[in-house]
Amino acid sequence: MKYVIRDHEAQPDSPLGGKARALAALRDADLPIPAWFVVRPEAFHDSLTACDRAALETGDGPAMRRILEGLRPSDEVDAELVEALAKLCPDGAPVAVRSSASDEDGAQHSFAGQLDSFLFVPAADVAAKVAAVWRSGFGERVSTYRREHNLGPTPRPPAVLVQRMVRAEAAGVGFGADPVSGRRRLAIVSAVFGLGTALVSGDADADTYHVDLDGAIVERAVADKRIAHRAAPGHGEGVEAVAVPDEQARQPALVDEQVRAVAVLVRRTGRHFGRPQDIEWAIENGKLYLLQSRPITSLSTVADPDGTINVWDNSNIAESYNGVTTPLTFSFARRVYEEVYRQFCRILNVPEAKITASANVFRHMLGLIRGRVYYNLLNWYRLIALLPGFQANRGFMEQMMGVKERLPDYLIGEMLPATTGERIKDHFRLAVSMFAMVRNHFGISRQIRRFYGRLRNALGEVRPDLENHRPDELVAYYRNIEVQLLTHWDAPLVNDFFAMIFYGLLGNLTRKWCGDLEGTLQNDLLCGEGGMVSAEPAARVRALAEAAVKHPTLSAALRDAPLGVVRGEIGSVPAFRDLYEEYLDRFGDRCLEELKLESPTLFDDPMTLMRSVGQLARRLAEGGTPVPVSQEAAIRRAAEERVRAALRWRPMRRVLFGWVMRNARARVRDRENLRFERTRIFGRVRLIMLELGRKFHALDLINEPRDVFYLEVEECLGHVGGTGTTTDLRGLVAVRRAEFERYRQLPPPSDRFETYGAVHEGNTFKGKAIAEQQAPDGDRLKGLGCCPGVVRGRARVITDPRNATLNVGDILVAERTDPGWIMLFPSAAGLLVERGSLLSHSAIVAREMGIPAVVSLAGVTRWLRDGDLVELDGSTGVVTRLAVSGFGEPRA
Question: How far is CA 772 from CA 245, 401, 767, in A?
């Protein structure tokens, strides 16, 4: 036939439209589908005259309405309809006549209820109803729907589905997943008496059933069904509403076996299509029929709440990986975290079987959500749970990581020993691990020395020139660093663990034995330890400024001149040049966002250092004080005296407290120093990868050397070694660059949120605290005091420390800081930071330099503006806004 396609004749490329195409796709699935045929869209065109077709193409409204009102199938089309109907219903049974538009019932748009359908149509009226369906495809409802969904203004004539009518005793819809909650393991069955049009039209409430995967009906709600739709040939759309007898209205429309049968049907349909379906079904004489099927279009935006829960938190990792982070950096960091914490468990004698069983924990310590790095927090707790003494270690870990909100007990419960036997084993393991910890504690100094030896051996004494290295030599160099350092990270790990333990113990002892309820004594005792490499850049910047101030031309160039001019001036002052080169040799890799491989270092762009030195030199020349008078020695002595007074008559406590305090000081100091060595390793990896990027660019594999940051580490190395899965690096970079640029434009995810199931599907990445985007109320804010002292001054809100300046007495206010900010610290009278913990870099360096500081001040950068007069108490963590400025927005 020219215009009619019967169900057994349909092919994948036949012009069937959405509804009929779905039925055709189910032809080989052995599902109970009433027989049908389709009238092609060409039948519409061929039923028009040439003049009518031309008028329709103009889009002239009145002309279109005139043509459509008089439209009927042509004689040739009518003849084919008669023939097809005789084969479909030789007994003369009525049929359903429905639209089947090309984009109807699709995965993105359903067009539900937008086009006309007719039921119980006798054979003599089919041609007229086909014409009515055609007209509905050009109606105002469809035009409005198309505009709202950006589908283009010009509709196409629909194909028309003609299907043998089912005289339903009960009917309804079925969903292969819960479209509201997103639960994929539930099928939803809705049922009414009579035809399903009563449900679709809203004339009748429906019984609703939730059916689990094993067929159990886990929830049921039987409606009061006062109306049913029954056959009414020749009446409107072929149905009419009739009253349901009172004694039947509250009875279920289906028995349980039928509910399960519908659930099985909708799931079979979903399996066939590869996605959950929304079906219409009907039961006639006890037999279940599938009338139509379409995808559930809403599921892509709804996460499955039955899926695996993950809790994401960026507490203090945002200090290291702020904002969007490239694939190269994340792939390297993820690999480092996986390997070093696996080593950590081995160091503490965790059984190898438990380490192997927890492989997934180590692989997923971090996550990348819209290009931003987060802790996969549950896995950090699971890591700590691998160690004995979980309850105590859990608190220490939360303090060290700056976690503001503890996990709910129901999530923690799975990690605790459940039985008496397991608790006994845990105590035994605790004894074994305690022995390992004691051994490691007494050997930590030796371990650190050995680590520094491996570091010197792997990195050498000077920064290498890799320009003449072949790609395979660069890969070998990277693998050597990986073997020598990344897989032998014992000293930093052990030291970090003991820093966590002793810092936590010191806090407990100061509270219990010294009555320090504010938690300030713990920090006061750690002030002025000395020997901390993180404070060294600030001292070197001061020395550079003192050398520059003797040479006004150099000082002015450092403040304002272009890079080439500044370098020329530096070369003309040997004393300054030597100090400058020593700084670069020592701290050239210490830059803003230094753990992001894509970050330019001072070797790439030294202007941040030059401008900072120039500004300090100008203040010196004007007689200003470049650095607040440090009180750390006095603070430390006062804290020690307070401890002596509290423990004067407790000699055993005094001895134990002194031991804990000495270890806390040493471990916190070494933690910060070893983190600097981590910076050097990241700097060397950055150097290798950039050179590899230059080689790839020279080989015309990528458009520019820095494109390498959009590849993962193993993709780079694998391309050289022959283990990569794609050789189209340029194409891969293009896809990733576009995706990550999109992430930069999107609002960032919340600081803490939960996801369910597939992380990137249906989850919103929004936490409970929407208020985190709003400025705090009132004139008082409380954070974590991390270096004592009361300071009053003008707030200087800085979002980007490049070229930023501080005036005498300014209080530096930032969302977060990293080691690259250290050049601003000498000029700050105080420090207020939105993020961070008591062991974050800003807190440690502030204590070492004696700068009163408060961290973990939620919303402080939105609460304060440049010029606001504030007072901070670095002991209690209280910040008070004394007066509001009229200076406007924060400045870089």
Answer: 56, 19, 9
Neighbours of 640 (CB within 10 A): 15
**Could you give the count of Cα atoms lying within 13 Å of 40 in the half-sphere of its Cβ?**
20
Helix, strand, coil fractions of the chain, as percent rounded to 5: 50, 15, 35
Paired residues of 878 in beta bridges: 782, 873
Neighbours of 430 (CB within 10 A): 16
Distance CA 696, CA 709 (A): 12
β partners of residue 812? 796, 831
Three-state secondary-structure class, residue 45: helix
CA dist., res. 134 & res. 156, Å (int): 9
* Dihedral sign (CA 833, 839, 845, 846): positive
3 state SS of 724: coil
* Residue keyed to tokens 């919103």: 764
> How many whole angstroms separate alpha carbon 741 and alpha carbon 765?
18
Q: Which pLDDT value is given to residue 672?
A: 86
Do the strands 790-797 and 117-121 form a parallel or antiparallel pair, or are they unpaired?
A: unpaired
Closest CA to 579 of 554, 605, 561: 554
- Angle CA(190)–CA(193)–CA(197) in degrees, nearest 5? 70
Q: How many residues does the chain have?
A: 892
Q: Give pLDDT, residue 113.
A: 46
Q: Where are the beta strands (DSSP E) in 562-609?
A: none
Gap between the Cα atoms of 492 and 677, Å rounded: 9
| Of 370, 275, 388, nearest in space to 325 by CA | 370
Q: Comparing C-alpha atoms, which of 279, 253, 263, 173 is closest to residue 216?
A: 263
The predicted pLDDT at position 305 comes to: 93
Taking all residues of the chain, what is their mean pLDDT, rounded to a whole number? Answer: 86
Q: Are strands 784-787 and 239-243 parallel, antiparallel or unpaired?
A: unpaired
Q: Where are the beta strands (DSSP E) in 285-398?
A: 287-295, 309-313, 366-369, 372-376
Q: Write the DSSP string, 410-466.
A: HHHGGGS--SHHHHHHHHHHHHHHHHHHHHHHHTHHHHHHHHHHHHHHHH-SS----
For 202, counting Cβ atoms within 10 Å of its Cβ (0-12 exposed, 13-18 middle, 19+ buried), the class is: exposed
* Torsions phi, psi for 874 (to 5 deg): -70, -5
E strand intervals along 296-362? 309-313
Q: Tokens 């007069």 correspond to what residue?
A: 869
Q: Is the Cβ–Cβ distance between 4 and 37 less than 8 Å?
A: yes
Q: Are strands 217-221 and 227-231 parallel, antiparallel or unpaired?
A: unpaired
Q: Return the beta strands (E) in 93-206 as ranges.
A: 95-100, 117-121, 159-164, 170-175, 187-193
Q: Could you read off the pLDDT of 347-404 as tens digits, one per residue?
A: 878 889 989 999 999 999 999 999 999 999 999 888 888 876 666 666 666 765 656 6
Q: What is the DSSP string of 658-713?
A: HHHHHHHHHHHHHHHHHHHHHHHHHHHHHHHHHHHHHHHHHTTSSSSGGGGGGS-H
pLDDT of residue 427: 63
In the sheet that holds 36-39, the strands lie side by side as 4-6, 36-39, 159-164, 95-100, 117-121
The C-alpha atoms of residue 209 and residue 220 are separated, in whole angstroms, by 4
- Among 510, 508, 505, which Cα is nearest to 521's? 510
The CA distance from 304 to 567, in Å, is 59
> Is residue 394 within 8 Å of 386, Cβ to Cβ?
no
d(CA 663, CA 506): 9
